[in-house]
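Quick one:
INPUT:
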């Protein structure tokens, strides 16, 4: 065989191999196997709320952007860029209307990655979804950007979605989250003391509260066991208490008695078992707090007279008694 024929055959074989390779890549692009760990596109958020705390108004919104296309290669299926209108995801909202009562509760909300794009061929379609939370102080979540792959296969009546996979920084993920509304309490207590205190009297406690999320984080008040709306003042008697629930870290408070240091009473303040003052403004931070306002009215009974003159009084009494019996005996003898 001549060298010319050999070269011609080699060229033909090379062309055949190239055609086969191209057909193989095309097959990869057309024949997609959905991973067994596929997702159904559901999104679930839970929010745990403590006893006597109302559900805050928070939300999670979703925006969709066109995805990234990837050319098919060995070990890599072709990925098509999905359109920015190809997915629809409803916003998840938690609201005060979700409350079921004053008991501790966990609220569950769901949404779904709905595919609305009309496909003309099977394959993997990529989208970029950004989740943006609108939160209040006490609930933590980050804005997330997640790559969403939609697997499309041939169905009996066209192309159908066989599964969805979400990735974040190259790892499989989802949009699910278990959230907690972290809050603290403030308890105001009135105490009366002293031997002259009127234990049946009542006193007005004024509360100056700065709520950092006034629109989104309502506060529940339980005054002596009865739920009522938040107020700027409370009337309390001896050992009476009022507790404010739903305070968050950046909230501040100040408690002042209206008639402090009046009518012979001495008023003192105690914050978390430490001495405080009427003008103290305290940030809630991450702890529960207790303010005790004590009115003391005491009178000291003098005791020095008895100790100093007591012996002389007893001697005088003894002399009177002896004299009485002496005169009585004399009168009898006469």
């Amino acid at each position: 065989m001549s060298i010319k024929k050999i070269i011609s055959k080699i060229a033909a074989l090379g062309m055949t191999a190239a055609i086969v390779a191209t057909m193989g890549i095309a097959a990869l692009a057309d024949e997609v196997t959905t991973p067994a760990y596929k997702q159904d596109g559901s999104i679930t958020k839970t929010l745990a709320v403590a006893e006597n705390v109302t559900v805050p108004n928070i939300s999670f919104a979703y925006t969709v952007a066109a995805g990234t296309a990837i050319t098919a290669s060995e070990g890599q299926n072709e990925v098509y860029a999905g359109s920015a209108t190809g997915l629809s995801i409803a916003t998840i909202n938690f609201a005060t209307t979700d409350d079921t009562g004053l008991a501790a509760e966990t609220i569950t909300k769901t949404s779904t990655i709905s595919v609305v794009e009309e496909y003309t061929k099977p394959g993997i379609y990529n989208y970029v979804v950004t989740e943006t939370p609108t939160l209040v102080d006490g609930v933590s979540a980050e804005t997330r950007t997640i790559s969403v792959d939609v697997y499309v296969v041939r169905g009996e009546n066209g192309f159908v979605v066989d599964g969805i996979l979400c990735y974040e920084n190259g790892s499989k993920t989802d949009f699910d989250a278990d959230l907690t509304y972290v809050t603290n309490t403030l308890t105001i207590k009135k105490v009366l003391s002293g031997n002259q205190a009127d234990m049946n009297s009542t006193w007005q406690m004024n509360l100056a509260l700065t709520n950092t999320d006034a629109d989104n984080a309502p506060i529940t008040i339980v005054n002596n066991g009865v739920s009522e709306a938040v107020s700027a003042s409370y009337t309390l008697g001896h050992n009476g208490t009022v507790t404010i629930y739903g305070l968050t870290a950046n909230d501040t408070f100040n408690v002042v008695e209206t008639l402090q240091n009046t009518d012979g009473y001495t008023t003192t303040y105690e914050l978390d078992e430490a001495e405080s003052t009427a003008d103290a403004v305290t940030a809630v931070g991450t702890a529960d707090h207790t303010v005790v306002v004590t009115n003391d009215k005491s009178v000291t009974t003098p005791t020095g007279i008895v100790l100093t003159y007591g012996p002389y009084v007893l001697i005088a009494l003894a002399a009177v008694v002896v004299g009485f019996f002496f005169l009585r005996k004399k009168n009898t003898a006469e």
